[in-house]
Write a structure and sequence with these properties.
Blueprint: E1 4-9, H1 16-31, E2 38-44, E3 50-51, E4 57-58, E5 62-63, E6 72-75, H2 81-84, H3 88-100, E7 103-107, H4 110-116, E8 124-125, H5 132-138, E9 143-144, E10 150-152, E11 156-159, H6 164-177, H7 179-189
Parallel strand pairs: 1-2, 1-6, 2-5, 6-7, 7-11, 8-9
Antiparallel strand pairs: 3-4, 10-11
Helix pairs in contact: 1-6, 6-7
Length: 211
Amino acid sequence: MTQKNIAILMFNDVEILDFAAPYEIFSITSEINEDKPFNVYLVAETLNSLQSHNGLSINPDFTLLDSPVPDVIFIPGGIGTKAAMNQLQILAWIQSKGHHADLIVSVCTGALLLAKVGLLDGLVATTHHQALEQLKVLAPQTTIVDNQRYVDNGKIITAAGISAGIDVSLYVIAKLLGDDKALKTAQYMEYDWKPKAKITPTPKISNSLGL
């Protein structure tokens, strides 16, 4: 299998576990499998150091302009999404790279960024429980659910708050590589995870990716 690029979008005041959980999980999968299936990296507007919510210093690997072409895009959340929704370069990157990516995954309030660029129109989505009403306002053509850890629309997957990023990451690994590889990763992490899809049927309305 060709190694897949996993790009994780970064911005100031990002929620730590929203990006750190996917980063760790995909990195572990590559570490414990000989074929090294994933290349995981952080992408931001510049290479300048960023600060997460609660002050962790983050050093991006690539800028939005020079990053490798991603096969999978992770959009984390956090209070920084409020500012990111007004950063045109970030929004343009999500739209342009999203057209070519195999999967786009949001964690927590990262769903608000997908809604901002119209990628959730006609789909079913979830987010952090405290942001459900905001998502409804941003995405009036989206069916918002509050009882699922993650929702798979095919190309676009949204996860609920913070720790749901762990579950959706393992789900994506199972989707791409099979349950055995995901379970192997979960066992290495000593995380109690079972391969059970959380999928909701999608209304038949096209979004801006034509999905």
